[in-house]
C-alpha cells in the first residue's frame, strides 16, 4: 500500500491531491486547531496529531515506520518576499529543521521514507542568497537522498497565479533507477542538456542555483510539461444575488475606485457596457507609502494569502451590463482556485475559510506530481521489493 505521512498538514490538500492515485495517509500533523477541525471534518480523526513539530521531533517513534513518502508544506512566512525574509533562521519557516531532525532519527533506525516531498514559495530558492536551499539539499544528501527541484505555478491548472517550489528527495539507491543523475565531474554534460528541455518546470534561476552548487547530489525526473488549463476566473465565481449584502455599498465601492491608478479605472470604464460580466481581482498594496488598489484584469486571480490584515483579502469586481460591483471573494471561491472539489467541507466562519485555503497547496499540482513522480517511483520500488522477496524464497 502507498502510505505517506503528512507534516504541516493544514486542512489536508496534499492528502486531497494524492487520493486519486490511491495513496493512504498513515499519519498527519499540524499545530493549528482550526485547521484540524477542517481536516477531520473531511478525512476523519484516525491519523491526525495536533502538536508542535518540535515536540514530534522529541518522540519520532509515534510516526509509523512503514511509510514510503513524507510530505511537508512547511510555513512560508520567513521565506516569502512579503515577509521579513528571515529564511530558515525564522521561527516559522525554521520548523523545517524539526522535520530534517526527524528524518535523521529515522535514518539511524533505518526506518526513513524512500522519498520526501517539500513544498514552499519560490523565495526558498533565493533566501539568504541561496544558502537556505543549499543547506537543505546538503542535509538531504547527507541523509542519503538525491534531490530534484521543480517549479510549478498553479496557474497551469487553475485561474490563480501561485508559483511554488517542490523539492523531491529520493533515496540514493532508488534514485539511480528513477532519475537522471548528475555526473560529479562536470555540470555541463548530457544531464545538463536535458535540463534545458523543460524551462517551464526549471527556471534559469534554478539552473544557476544548481550550477553554483555542483558538489551536491542532484537528479532529474524526466516529466512532461503540464497542459495549460482553459479555466478563467469567471469559471470559479459563485453566483451571488445582486441584492446580497456581500456586495459592497456605494461609498465603499467608490473608495476602492479612488485607490486605483488611472489605467485600472480605464479598464473598469471600458468594460462597463460589455454584454457579459467581466470579473477581475483586486489586492490593496502599499506603494510609496500610499495604499493602492491594484486590479488584475487578465482572468486570473492573484496569489491567495491568509487574512492577516485587510490588504491580504482578495477583492472580486464584477463589471458589465452598465455597472460594476465589488465584494470580497468567498471562501468557496478560494477553494476552487486551489482546485478543491465543492463537496470539501469548509468552516462556516469566513476568516477560518480564508485561512484554510490561503496558505494551502494547489490540489492539481499535487496530482500532477503524484502521477508523474511519486507513484511511478513507488511502482519501481514495489517491483524491486517483491523481486527480492521472490528471490529469497527461491533460495
From TrEMBL:
Catalytic residues per the record?
76
Broad EC category:
transferase
Q: RNA-binding: is it a keyword of this entry?
A: no
Q: Which reaction does it catalyse?
A: a 2'-deoxycytidine in DNA + S-adenosyl-L-methionine = a 5-methyl-2'-deoxycytidine in DNA + S-adenosyl-L-homocysteine + H(+)
Q: Name one GO biological process term.
A: methylation
Keyword Methyltransferase on this protein?
Answer: yes
The UniProt keyword set, sorted, is: Methyltransferase, Restriction system, S-adenosyl-L-methionine, Transferase
Query: What EC number(s) does the entry state?
Result: 2.1.1.37
Molecular function per GO: methyltransferase activity
NCBIfam families (UniProt xref): dcm (TIGR00675)
Q: Of which family is this protein a member?
A: Belongs to the class I-like SAM-binding methyltransferase superfamily. C5-methyltransferase family.
What is the protein's name according to its record?
DNA (cytosine-5-)-methyltransferase
Q: Which organism is it from?
A: Thiothrix winogradskyi
Amino acid at each position: 500500500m502507498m502510505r505517506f505521512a503528512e507534516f504541516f498538514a493544514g486542512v489536508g490538500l496534499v492528502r486531497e491531491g494524492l487520493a486519486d492515485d490511491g495513496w493512504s495517509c498513515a499519519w498527519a500533523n499540524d499545530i493549528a486547531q482550526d485547521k484540524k477541525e477542517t481536516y477531520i471534518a473531511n478525512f476523519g480523526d484516525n491519523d491526525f496529531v495536533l502538536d508542535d513539530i518540535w515536540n514530534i521531533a522529541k518522540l519520532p517513534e509515534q510516526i509509523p515506520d512503514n511509510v514510503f513518502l513524507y510530505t511537508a508544506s512547511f510555513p512560508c512566512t520567513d521565506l516569502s518576499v512579503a515577509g521579513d525574509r528571515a529564511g530558515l533562521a525564522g521561527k516559522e519557516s525554521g520548523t523545517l529543521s524539526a522535520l530534517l531532525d526527524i528524518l535523521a532519527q529515522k535514518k539511524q533506525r533505518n526506518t526513513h521514507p524512500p522519498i520526501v516531498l517539500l513544498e514552499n514559495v519560490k523565495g526558498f530558492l533565493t533566501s539568504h542568497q541561496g544558502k537556505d536551499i543549499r543547506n537543505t539539499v546538503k542535509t538531504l544528501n547527507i541523509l542519503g537522498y538525491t534531490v530534484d527541484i521543480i517549479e510549478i505555478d498553479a496557474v497551469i491548472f487553475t485561474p490563480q497565479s501561485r508559483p511554488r517550489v517542490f523539492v523531491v528527495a529520493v533515496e540514493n539507491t532508488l534514485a539511480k533507477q528513477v532519475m537522471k543523475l548528475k555526473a560529479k565531474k562536470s555540470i555541463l554534460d548530457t544531464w545538463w542538456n536535458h535540463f534545458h528541455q523543460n524551462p517551464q518546470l526549471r527556471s534559469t534561476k534554478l539552473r544557476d542555483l544548481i550550477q553554483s552548487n555542483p558538489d551536491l547530489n542532484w537528479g532529474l525526473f524526466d516529466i512532461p510539461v503540464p497542459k495549460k488549463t482553459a479555466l478563467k476566473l469567471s469559471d470559479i465565481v459563485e453566483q451571488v444575488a445582486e441584492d446580497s449584502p456581500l456586495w459592497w455599498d456605494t461609498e465603499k465601492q467608490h473608495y476602492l475606485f479612488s485607490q486605483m491608478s488611472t489605467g485600472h479605472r480605464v479598464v473598469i470604464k471600458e468594460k462597463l457596457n460589455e454584454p457579459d460580466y467581466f470579473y477581475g481581482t483586486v489586492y490593496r498594496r502599499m506603494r510609496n507609502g500610499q495604499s493602492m488598489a491594484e486590479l488584475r484584469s487578465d482572468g486570473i486571480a492573484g496569489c491567495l494569502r491568509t487574512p492577516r490584515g485587510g490588504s491580504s483579502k482578495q477583492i472580486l469586481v464584477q463589471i458589465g451590463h452598465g455597472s460594476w460591483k465589488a465584494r470580497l471573494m468567498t471562501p468557496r471561491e478560494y477553494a476552487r482556485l486551489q482546485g478543491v472539489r465543492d463537496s470539501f467541507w469548509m468552516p462556516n466562519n469566513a476568516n477560518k475559510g480564508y485561512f484554510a485555503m490561503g496558505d494551502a497547496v494547489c490540489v492539481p499540482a499535487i496530482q500532477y506530481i503524484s502521477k508523474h513522480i511519486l507513484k511511478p517511483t513507488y511502482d519501481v520500488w514495489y517491483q524491486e521489493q517483491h523481486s527480492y522477496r521472490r528471490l529469497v524464497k527461491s533460495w
